[in-house]
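To illustrate this point, what follows is a protein record of this kind.

___
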Amino acid sequence: MPIVLRHNATLELSRVEYTGVMRAQDLHDHAAFNAANPVWLGFDCISVIHDDVDVSGISLNNLDGVFTAHRELFEPLNLMFMRRSGWVCESPAGQRFLSHWLTKRNADKSPWADVRQFDSFEAASEWMLLTPENADILKSGEGFNEVARFASGATPTR
């Protein structure tokens, strides 16, 4: 299960987890799902790249293609809100790709999201103005219900 989108209705916060073998198609399918279901874009989000992620099947050129497709999917939506999107990366291999993505993202900022990377869930929680109890929930993932998952060769679930 490379990408799983979860949501906590109480916190009004989404959590996207990246784990296992990743493919560029998984990233594209996740972006296409969000474009087709923009309700999920209205919530602040924490994205977590777990230490077991395998990005050996993705090149920086693949990632550039996903970035371009991502822009093409989202620009026509003309989103009228601002959301916070935080990243926590536990994987040195994943960090290379996240750094590349954030460099491209920050060079061409979108008006609808403030995107930042954090060294810890605690730092991300502080930025998101969460109480200590809710920061613990964010870190554990407790109470985040699955919305969809994206894995190469599988139909995205909802």
About this structure: DSSP finds five helices and six strands in the chain.
